[in-house]
Amino acid sequence: MINAGELVRLFRDRFGQAPRWVVRAPGRVNLIGEHTDYNEGFVMPLAIEHAVWIALAPRDDRRVVVESLDFGGRVEFPIDEVAAAQPGSGHPLQPSHRSGQVWPAYIAGVTWSLAQDGWPLRGWEGLIHGDVPIGAGLSSSAAIEVATAYAFAASAGWEPKVPSLARACQRAENQWVGVGCGIMDQLVSLAGKKGHAILIDCRSLEYRPVILPAEVVVVIMDTGTRRGLADSEYNSRRSQCEEAARLLGVRALRDIGWDNWPQCELVLPEPWRRRARHVVSENHRTLQAVEAMEQRALDRLGRLLVESHQSLRDDFEVSSPALDTIVAIAQAQPGCFGARMTGAGFGGCAIALVEAARAREFAQSVEAEYRRRTNLEPKLYVSAPAYGAQILSVDELSPPGSENP
Ligand code: GLA
Q1: How far is the CA of 234 from the CAs of 186, 237, 326, 344, in angstroms?
Q2: Cα 35 to ligand 1 centroid, rounded to whole Å
Protein backbone atom coordinates (compact mmCIF):
# COMPACT_ATOMS: atom_id res chain seq x y z
CA MET A 1 0.00 0.00 0.00
CA ILE A 2 1.62 3.25 -1.14
CA ASN A 3 0.38 6.83 -1.20
CA ALA A 4 -0.50 9.07 -4.18
CA GLY A 5 2.75 11.04 -3.92
CA GLU A 6 4.71 7.80 -4.10
CA LEU A 7 2.71 6.64 -7.13
CA VAL A 8 3.49 9.96 -8.85
CA ARG A 9 7.21 9.45 -8.15
CA LEU A 10 7.17 5.86 -9.43
CA PHE A 11 5.34 6.99 -12.58
CA ARG A 12 8.09 9.53 -13.21
CA ASP A 13 10.77 6.82 -12.85
CA ARG A 14 9.05 4.58 -15.34
CA PHE A 15 7.73 7.00 -17.95
CA GLY A 16 10.35 9.76 -17.71
CA GLN A 17 7.79 12.55 -17.21
CA ALA A 18 5.39 13.69 -14.51
CA PRO A 19 1.83 12.31 -14.60
CA ARG A 20 -0.95 14.87 -15.01
CA TRP A 21 -3.62 13.14 -12.88
CA VAL A 22 -4.18 10.42 -10.33
CA VAL A 23 -7.58 8.74 -10.61
CA ARG A 24 -9.02 6.66 -7.82
CA ALA A 25 -11.92 4.15 -7.83
CA PRO A 26 -12.96 2.27 -4.68
CA GLY A 27 -14.06 -1.31 -4.02
CA ARG A 28 -17.35 -1.89 -2.21
CA VAL A 29 -19.28 -3.95 0.29
CA ASN A 30 -22.99 -4.43 0.10
CA LEU A 31 -24.91 -3.62 3.27
CA ILE A 32 -28.12 -5.22 2.03
CA GLY A 33 -29.91 -6.05 -1.25
CA GLU A 34 -28.08 -9.17 -2.44
CA HIS A 35 -28.72 -10.83 -5.81
CA THR A 36 -31.38 -8.19 -6.47
CA ASP A 37 -29.49 -5.95 -8.93
CA TYR A 38 -29.92 -8.22 -11.96
CA ASN A 39 -33.61 -8.54 -11.00
CA GLU A 40 -33.95 -4.76 -11.45
CA GLY A 41 -34.45 -4.37 -7.69
CA PHE A 42 -32.88 -2.40 -4.84
CA VAL A 43 -29.37 -2.58 -3.36
CA MET A 44 -27.63 -0.56 -0.64
CA PRO A 45 -23.84 -0.93 -0.95
CA LEU A 46 -21.11 1.42 0.25
CA ALA A 47 -17.77 2.34 -1.29
CA ILE A 48 -14.81 1.31 0.90
CA GLU A 49 -11.42 2.86 1.53
CA HIS A 50 -9.61 0.11 -0.41
CA ALA A 51 -9.29 1.29 -3.99
CA VAL A 52 -7.46 1.20 -7.32
CA TRP A 53 -5.33 4.21 -8.35
CA ILE A 54 -3.91 5.11 -11.76
CA ALA A 55 -1.32 7.88 -12.17
CA LEU A 56 -1.47 8.95 -15.82
CA ALA A 57 -0.39 11.37 -18.52
CA PRO A 58 -2.00 11.91 -21.94
CA ARG A 59 -0.35 10.68 -25.16
CA ASP A 60 -0.73 11.99 -28.68
CA ASP A 61 -0.63 8.67 -30.56
CA ARG A 62 -4.01 7.11 -29.60
CA ARG A 63 -2.28 4.32 -27.70
CA VAL A 64 -2.89 3.16 -24.15
CA VAL A 65 0.16 1.99 -22.20
CA VAL A 66 -0.30 0.75 -18.64
CA GLU A 67 2.12 -0.79 -16.14
CA SER A 68 0.95 -2.59 -13.06
CA LEU A 69 2.84 -1.90 -9.87
CA ASP A 70 1.32 -4.92 -8.17
CA PHE A 71 1.67 -7.54 -10.93
CA GLY A 72 4.71 -6.15 -12.71
CA GLY A 73 3.33 -6.51 -16.25
CA ARG A 74 2.81 -3.94 -19.01
CA VAL A 75 0.01 -3.71 -21.55
CA GLU A 76 0.08 -1.55 -24.68
CA PHE A 77 -2.51 -1.27 -27.45
CA PRO A 78 -3.88 1.14 -30.07
CA ILE A 79 -7.32 2.41 -29.00
CA ASP A 80 -8.79 2.06 -32.49
CA GLU A 81 -7.78 -1.55 -32.87
CA VAL A 82 -9.45 -2.55 -29.57
CA ALA A 83 -12.49 -0.36 -30.35
CA ALA A 84 -13.01 -2.25 -33.62
CA ALA A 85 -12.66 -5.75 -32.08
CA GLN A 86 -15.63 -8.01 -31.37
CA PRO A 87 -15.97 -9.37 -27.84
CA GLY A 88 -15.51 -13.13 -27.80
CA SER A 89 -13.55 -13.03 -31.06
CA GLY A 90 -10.26 -14.16 -29.57
CA HIS A 91 -8.59 -10.77 -29.43
CA PRO A 92 -5.28 -11.21 -27.55
CA LEU A 93 -6.52 -8.87 -24.80
CA GLN A 94 -9.61 -10.97 -24.15
CA PRO A 95 -9.31 -13.29 -21.15
CA SER A 96 -9.39 -16.66 -22.94
CA HIS A 97 -6.22 -15.76 -24.81
CA ARG A 98 -4.36 -14.06 -22.05
CA SER A 99 -1.31 -15.66 -20.54
CA GLY A 100 -1.62 -15.30 -16.79
CA GLN A 101 -2.70 -11.79 -15.91
CA VAL A 102 -6.33 -10.69 -15.94
CA TRP A 103 -6.06 -6.93 -15.34
CA PRO A 104 -5.17 -5.98 -18.97
CA ALA A 105 -8.50 -7.47 -20.11
CA TYR A 106 -10.42 -5.02 -17.90
CA ILE A 107 -8.52 -2.07 -19.30
CA ALA A 108 -9.03 -3.18 -22.91
CA GLY A 109 -12.67 -4.08 -22.18
CA VAL A 110 -13.48 -0.61 -20.83
CA THR A 111 -11.72 0.95 -23.85
CA TRP A 112 -13.87 -1.15 -26.19
CA SER A 113 -17.05 -0.42 -24.25
CA LEU A 114 -16.51 3.37 -24.03
CA ALA A 115 -15.89 3.39 -27.79
CA GLN A 116 -19.21 1.56 -28.32
CA ASP A 117 -20.97 4.44 -26.56
CA GLY A 118 -19.14 7.03 -28.65
CA TRP A 119 -17.13 8.70 -25.84
CA PRO A 120 -14.18 10.63 -27.33
CA LEU A 121 -11.02 8.69 -26.43
CA ARG A 122 -7.46 9.92 -26.25
CA GLY A 123 -4.30 7.90 -25.61
CA TRP A 124 -2.70 7.85 -22.17
CA GLU A 125 0.04 6.10 -20.23
CA GLY A 126 -0.51 5.05 -16.67
CA LEU A 127 0.81 3.25 -13.63
CA ILE A 128 -1.88 1.24 -11.84
CA HIS A 129 -1.88 0.15 -8.22
CA GLY A 130 -4.60 -1.19 -5.93
CA ASP A 131 -5.23 -2.52 -2.45
CA VAL A 132 -8.70 -4.05 -2.90
CA PRO A 133 -8.24 -7.70 -1.88
CA ILE A 134 -8.64 -9.84 -5.01
CA GLY A 135 -11.30 -12.55 -5.17
CA ALA A 136 -12.69 -11.61 -1.76
CA GLY A 137 -15.96 -10.25 -3.14
CA LEU A 138 -14.98 -6.60 -2.61
CA SER A 139 -15.19 -5.75 -6.33
CA SER A 140 -11.57 -5.25 -7.25
CA SER A 141 -12.61 -5.75 -10.89
CA ALA A 142 -15.24 -2.99 -10.82
CA ALA A 143 -12.60 -0.72 -9.24
CA ILE A 144 -10.19 -1.36 -12.15
CA GLU A 145 -12.97 -0.76 -14.67
CA VAL A 146 -14.10 2.50 -13.11
CA ALA A 147 -10.52 3.73 -12.65
CA THR A 148 -9.91 3.02 -16.35
CA ALA A 149 -13.07 4.91 -17.37
CA TYR A 150 -11.89 7.84 -15.23
CA ALA A 151 -8.44 7.73 -16.85
CA PHE A 152 -10.17 8.19 -20.23
CA ALA A 153 -12.38 10.97 -18.83
CA ALA A 154 -9.30 12.80 -17.50
CA SER A 155 -7.17 12.37 -20.63
CA ALA A 156 -9.92 13.31 -23.11
CA GLY A 157 -11.34 16.03 -20.85
CA TRP A 158 -14.98 14.97 -20.50
CA GLU A 159 -17.21 15.03 -17.45
CA PRO A 160 -17.86 11.51 -16.08
CA LYS A 161 -21.60 10.66 -15.99
CA VAL A 162 -22.46 8.10 -13.34
CA PRO A 163 -25.19 5.83 -14.75
CA SER A 164 -23.85 5.72 -18.29
CA LEU A 165 -20.28 4.97 -17.17
CA ALA A 166 -21.58 2.29 -14.80
CA ARG A 167 -23.37 0.67 -17.75
CA ALA A 168 -20.25 0.92 -19.91
CA CYS A 169 -18.11 -0.73 -17.23
CA GLN A 170 -20.69 -3.45 -16.66
CA ARG A 171 -20.79 -4.14 -20.42
CA ALA A 172 -16.99 -4.45 -20.44
CA GLU A 173 -17.19 -7.09 -17.72
CA ASN A 174 -20.21 -8.95 -19.20
CA GLN A 175 -19.16 -8.98 -22.83
CA TRP A 176 -15.40 -8.43 -23.06
CA VAL A 177 -14.26 -10.21 -19.89
CA GLY A 178 -17.17 -12.65 -20.11
CA VAL A 179 -18.30 -12.51 -16.45
CA GLY A 180 -21.99 -12.08 -15.64
CA CYS A 181 -22.61 -9.33 -13.06
CA GLY A 182 -25.25 -6.74 -12.29
CA ILE A 183 -24.79 -2.98 -12.10
CA MET A 184 -24.26 -2.56 -8.35
CA ASP A 185 -20.47 -2.76 -8.07
CA GLN A 186 -19.67 -0.30 -10.86
CA LEU A 187 -22.38 2.13 -9.85
CA VAL A 188 -21.34 2.39 -6.21
CA SER A 189 -17.66 2.66 -7.14
CA LEU A 190 -18.68 5.74 -9.14
CA ALA A 191 -21.32 7.19 -6.81
CA GLY A 192 -20.06 6.36 -3.29
CA LYS A 193 -20.24 9.07 -0.65
CA LYS A 194 -18.18 9.42 2.50
CA GLY A 195 -20.12 8.33 5.59
CA HIS A 196 -23.02 7.01 3.52
CA ALA A 197 -24.36 3.87 1.92
CA ILE A 198 -25.97 4.34 -1.50
CA LEU A 199 -29.51 3.15 -2.18
CA ILE A 200 -29.70 2.21 -5.87
CA ASP A 201 -32.81 1.44 -7.87
CA CYS A 202 -31.32 -0.98 -10.38
CA ARG A 203 -34.16 -0.42 -12.85
CA SER A 204 -34.10 3.36 -13.18
CA LEU A 205 -30.47 3.65 -11.96
CA GLU A 206 -31.57 6.44 -9.64
CA TYR A 207 -29.56 6.49 -6.47
CA ARG A 208 -29.30 8.43 -3.26
CA PRO A 209 -27.01 8.45 -0.24
CA VAL A 210 -28.29 7.12 3.09
CA ILE A 211 -26.26 8.16 6.11
CA LEU A 212 -24.69 5.45 8.23
CA PRO A 213 -25.34 6.38 11.88
CA ALA A 214 -22.09 7.48 13.53
CA GLU A 215 -22.48 5.11 16.47
CA VAL A 216 -21.95 2.02 14.29
CA VAL A 217 -19.28 0.69 11.95
CA VAL A 218 -19.44 -1.91 9.21
CA VAL A 219 -16.84 -4.59 9.89
CA ILE A 220 -15.77 -6.56 6.80
CA MET A 221 -14.95 -10.16 7.67
CA ASP A 222 -12.95 -12.03 5.03
CA THR A 223 -13.39 -15.77 5.63
CA GLY A 224 -10.10 -16.54 3.88
CA THR A 225 -12.02 -18.79 1.47
CA ARG A 226 -12.42 -17.93 -2.20
CA ARG A 227 -15.47 -18.47 -4.32
CA GLY A 228 -15.01 -21.72 -6.18
CA LEU A 229 -17.78 -22.42 -8.74
CA ALA A 230 -19.03 -18.90 -8.21
CA ASP A 231 -19.39 -17.98 -11.88
CA SER A 232 -21.42 -20.99 -12.93
CA GLU A 233 -23.62 -20.85 -9.82
CA TYR A 234 -24.11 -17.09 -10.29
CA ASN A 235 -25.22 -17.61 -13.88
CA SER A 236 -27.54 -20.42 -12.87
CA ARG A 237 -29.20 -18.24 -10.16
CA ARG A 238 -29.62 -15.47 -12.72
CA SER A 239 -31.38 -17.72 -15.18
CA GLN A 240 -33.57 -19.22 -12.46
CA CYS A 241 -34.68 -15.70 -11.53
CA GLU A 242 -35.43 -14.89 -15.18
CA GLU A 243 -37.40 -18.09 -15.51
CA ALA A 244 -39.38 -17.31 -12.32
CA ALA A 245 -40.22 -13.85 -13.69
CA ARG A 246 -41.35 -15.44 -16.95
CA LEU A 247 -43.56 -17.94 -15.10
CA LEU A 248 -45.11 -15.05 -13.16
CA GLY A 249 -45.66 -13.02 -16.34
CA VAL A 250 -43.56 -10.02 -15.25
CA ARG A 251 -40.55 -8.30 -16.80
CA ALA A 252 -38.37 -8.89 -13.71
CA LEU A 253 -38.84 -10.11 -10.13
CA ARG A 254 -38.68 -6.46 -9.09
CA ASP A 255 -42.28 -6.23 -10.28
CA ILE A 256 -43.52 -8.53 -7.51
CA GLY A 257 -44.16 -6.76 -4.22
CA TRP A 258 -43.89 -8.60 -0.90
CA ASP A 259 -47.65 -8.05 -0.43
CA ASN A 260 -48.37 -10.01 -3.62
CA TRP A 261 -46.04 -12.85 -2.74
CA PRO A 262 -48.70 -15.17 -1.16
CA GLN A 263 -50.52 -15.42 -4.54
CA CYS A 264 -47.33 -15.62 -6.58
CA GLU A 265 -45.75 -18.44 -4.65
CA LEU A 266 -48.65 -20.74 -5.52
CA VAL A 267 -47.68 -20.51 -9.20
CA LEU A 268 -44.01 -21.42 -8.86
CA PRO A 269 -42.50 -24.91 -8.58
CA GLU A 270 -39.26 -25.51 -6.65
CA PRO A 271 -36.51 -24.32 -6.77
CA TRP A 272 -37.90 -21.24 -8.55
CA ARG A 273 -40.25 -20.56 -5.63
CA ARG A 274 -37.42 -20.24 -3.10
CA ARG A 275 -35.18 -18.28 -5.47
CA ALA A 276 -37.96 -15.79 -6.15
CA ARG A 277 -38.92 -15.60 -2.46
CA HIS A 278 -35.38 -14.52 -1.67
CA VAL A 279 -35.40 -11.75 -4.28
CA VAL A 280 -38.88 -10.46 -3.46
CA SER A 281 -38.26 -10.48 0.31
CA GLU A 282 -34.76 -8.99 -0.10
CA ASN A 283 -36.12 -6.03 -2.05
CA HIS A 284 -38.61 -5.46 0.76
CA ARG A 285 -35.88 -5.78 3.42
CA THR A 286 -33.66 -3.31 1.57
CA LEU A 287 -36.32 -0.61 1.58
CA GLN A 288 -37.05 -1.33 5.24
CA ALA A 289 -33.32 -1.05 5.97
CA VAL A 290 -33.28 2.44 4.47
CA GLU A 291 -36.01 3.49 6.87
CA ALA A 292 -34.28 1.84 9.81
CA MET A 293 -31.04 3.64 8.98
CA GLU A 294 -32.75 6.98 8.64
CA GLN A 295 -34.48 6.45 11.99
CA ARG A 296 -31.26 5.15 13.58
CA ALA A 297 -33.18 2.01 14.53
CA LEU A 298 -30.05 -0.12 14.76
CA ASP A 299 -31.66 -3.21 16.30
CA ARG A 300 -34.16 -3.29 13.46
CA LEU A 301 -31.42 -2.77 10.87
CA GLY A 302 -29.40 -5.60 12.43
CA ARG A 303 -32.39 -7.95 12.34
CA LEU A 304 -32.84 -7.22 8.64
CA LEU A 305 -29.20 -8.20 8.01
CA VAL A 306 -29.74 -11.47 9.89
CA GLU A 307 -32.89 -12.23 7.88
CA SER A 308 -31.05 -11.43 4.66
CA HIS A 309 -28.36 -13.97 5.54
CA GLN A 310 -30.94 -16.65 6.34
CA SER A 311 -32.70 -16.04 3.05
CA LEU A 312 -29.43 -16.18 1.07
CA ARG A 313 -28.45 -19.37 2.88
CA ASP A 314 -31.77 -21.27 2.77
CA ASP A 315 -33.72 -19.88 -0.19
CA PHE A 316 -31.06 -18.64 -2.59
CA GLU A 317 -28.43 -21.19 -1.48
CA VAL A 318 -25.35 -19.07 -2.11
CA SER A 319 -23.74 -19.15 1.33
CA SER A 320 -20.98 -21.56 2.42
CA PRO A 321 -19.96 -23.25 5.69
CA ALA A 322 -17.20 -20.66 6.24
CA LEU A 323 -19.61 -17.74 5.70
CA ASP A 324 -22.23 -19.30 7.98
CA THR A 325 -19.61 -19.88 10.68
CA ILE A 326 -18.21 -16.35 10.67
CA VAL A 327 -21.72 -14.86 10.62
CA ALA A 328 -22.79 -17.01 13.60
CA ILE A 329 -19.66 -16.07 15.55
CA ALA A 330 -20.17 -12.38 14.78
CA GLN A 331 -23.81 -12.42 15.84
CA ALA A 332 -22.90 -13.89 19.22
CA GLN A 333 -20.56 -10.99 20.11
CA PRO A 334 -21.55 -8.09 22.36
CA GLY A 335 -22.16 -4.92 20.41
CA CYS A 336 -23.08 -6.71 17.15
CA PHE A 337 -26.46 -5.69 15.75
CA GLY A 338 -26.44 -8.20 12.90
CA ALA A 339 -24.27 -9.90 10.29
CA ARG A 340 -24.62 -11.44 6.84
CA MET A 341 -22.66 -12.71 3.87
CA THR A 342 -22.03 -10.02 1.26
CA GLY A 343 -21.49 -10.10 -2.50
CA ALA A 344 -22.08 -13.07 -4.78
CA GLY A 345 -21.44 -15.66 -2.03
CA PHE A 346 -19.81 -19.14 -1.94
CA GLY A 347 -16.84 -17.68 -0.03
CA GLY A 348 -15.20 -14.30 0.37
CA CYS A 349 -16.59 -11.82 2.85
CA ALA A 350 -19.36 -11.27 5.34
CA ILE A 351 -20.16 -8.01 7.11
CA ALA A 352 -21.25 -7.13 10.63
CA LEU A 353 -22.89 -3.99 11.94
CA VAL A 354 -21.11 -3.25 15.19
CA GLU A 355 -21.25 -0.58 17.89
CA ALA A 356 -18.31 1.70 17.03
CA ALA A 357 -16.92 1.68 20.56
CA ARG A 358 -16.71 -2.11 20.59
CA ALA A 359 -15.32 -2.68 17.08
CA ARG A 360 -11.77 -3.51 18.15
CA GLU A 361 -12.83 -5.98 20.82
CA PHE A 362 -15.34 -7.45 18.33
CA ALA A 363 -12.68 -7.99 15.67
CA GLN A 364 -10.29 -9.68 18.10
CA SER A 365 -12.91 -12.09 19.42
CA VAL A 366 -14.25 -13.01 15.97
CA GLU A 367 -10.74 -13.64 14.63
CA ALA A 368 -9.77 -15.86 17.55
CA GLU A 369 -13.00 -17.86 17.57
CA TYR A 370 -13.10 -18.30 13.77
CA ARG A 371 -9.49 -19.53 13.74
CA ARG A 372 -10.24 -21.94 16.53
CA ARG A 373 -13.33 -23.37 14.84
CA THR A 374 -12.11 -23.57 11.24
CA ASN A 375 -8.31 -23.49 11.18
CA LEU A 376 -8.68 -20.80 8.54
CA GLU A 377 -7.06 -17.37 8.67
CA PRO A 378 -9.68 -14.59 8.60
CA LYS A 379 -9.01 -10.91 7.93
CA LEU A 380 -11.18 -8.24 9.49
CA TYR A 381 -11.29 -4.62 8.36
CA VAL A 382 -13.25 -1.65 9.54
CA SER A 383 -13.77 0.56 6.52
CA ALA A 384 -15.65 3.81 6.83
CA PRO A 385 -17.91 4.44 3.81
CA ALA A 386 -15.69 6.24 1.30
CA TYR A 387 -16.06 8.58 -1.65
CA GLY A 388 -16.73 7.25 -5.11
CA ALA A 389 -14.29 7.67 -8.00
CA GLN A 390 -12.25 10.86 -8.25
CA ILE A 391 -9.90 12.59 -10.67
CA LEU A 392 -7.12 14.39 -8.79
CA SER A 393 -4.92 16.80 -10.63
CA VAL A 394 -1.26 16.15 -9.76
CA ASP A 395 -0.67 19.90 -9.38
CA GLU A 396 -3.21 19.98 -6.57
CA LEU A 397 -1.95 16.88 -4.77
CA SER A 398 -0.35 17.46 -1.42
CA PRO A 399 3.44 16.99 -1.24
CA PRO A 400 4.65 13.37 -1.59
CA GLY A 401 4.16 11.37 1.59
CA SER A 402 1.41 13.51 3.11
CA GLU A 403 -1.52 11.89 1.38
CA ASN A 404 -2.90 8.46 1.76
CA PRO A 405 -4.50 7.41 -1.50
C1 GLA B 1 -21.70 -9.84 -7.58
C2 GLA B 1 -22.12 -9.04 -8.80
C3 GLA B 1 -23.14 -7.96 -8.40
C4 GLA B 1 -24.30 -8.56 -7.61
C5 GLA B 1 -23.76 -9.41 -6.46
C6 GLA B 1 -24.85 -10.12 -5.70
O7 GLA B 1 -20.98 -9.01 -6.70
O8 GLA B 1 -21.00 -8.44 -9.39
O9 GLA B 1 -23.60 -7.31 -9.56
O10 GLA B 1 -25.15 -9.30 -8.43
O11 GLA B 1 -22.83 -10.38 -6.91
O12 GLA B 1 -25.67 -9.21 -5.05
Answers
A1: 17, 5, 22, 7
A2: 6
